[in-house]
Amino acid sequence: MAPPSSTFRQVDEKHVPVEVKCMAWNPKIDLIALSNNQGEVYLHRLSWQRVWTLEPHSEASQVISLAWRPDGQVLGVGYSTGWVLLIDVENADVLHSFTTQSQVICMKWSADEALDMEVDGALPCYIDQSAKYLPKLPPLNKSFVRPSGSSRHNEDSPEDAKKLKEQSRLNILVVGCENCTVHLLAYGIYPVALLNLEKYPAVKQGKLVLANVSRDFHLLSVMVRSGHSDGRELFLHIFDIALLCTHHREIQIFAGKYGQISALIAYLDSTITAMTEAWEDILLEMDSKLAKFAEDKAKLGTGSVSDDFLQLLMFGTCSDELNQFLLYELTEKGLKKLGHSLETSYSNVQKLVLKHLQAVSQALTYHLGDVAGMSEWKERFGSLGLTPESVQGRHSADSLSSHS
Asked: What is the SS3 assignment for 87?
């Protein structure tokens, strides 16, 4: 009986119009992500049907590395500019983005499926009950928000815009950079640790090649190419990161809270943008109607538009120029139309305040209160550097910046 064949056999071949730089198979679905030398990212099915295309992040930026989240729902894309984008597998929306300030060299997403989330005899687990006490955030009307290329909110669940709701176990995104730094991010969103390899003499003259954490989150392995001779020597450096293992549950809880607050802040920014746009629409309409009148006033040198309207408001008298403008250029019909536009803009702003701004402010207050409570739980969160002083200091800084 002939022994089974142990050789590789090509089963298919596909052609692409441009050179492929990186490829990464989805760990759960029949999808493959590819990047080319033009900075684009494609997502294909096994049948080679294209699912979506992600345009280059910026001019001349190149994709250096691709990494899938262990559940296959999010794709991490690392660029030569130092930016890392987390992409929704369903529609190519940017769920989250951050910069490492240096070219990305490698990325690896790791999770330990066997890690026990709770240990017998440990302190009770924190349970997020925000869904029980907080109303669902209403989706923002698309007509209010100007497309910006940044992350768009999940219309069904704006609170889970970072797609963390179904994450029952902790996973870590490891990002290695050209400046010999290694970033560890829980769920690819919350920065857990930053390791600067240049502080270690044995690594200082080398070039980072690969970085990854062990399956039990105890060790960080870093491979460095020697900076001496011809650079053919590779060195493996192993760092003890047992804190990630011993406090994985606390990191998971706080990373989830960080994701919720980040999503709410993005929702708040979009709400304020929508309010601004709703009011700017009427200002632009008024500006277009008053532009010619203002030009005529400037040519005649008979004062400003604001002087005429202030005189009409305070004394009930109308200048000849304003009288001509109201009667023959704006007309009664145009004035009614302008009034209707003002009423519509006011109504839109009022709805945004009552439905969206109030809801997101309430949710932010709730979650920030949770963070303040965690900071008081020193036995579990103190080792992560979360203290009442740090939370209060951050809150004070945010309050100061919001009033400046």
From this structure: strand
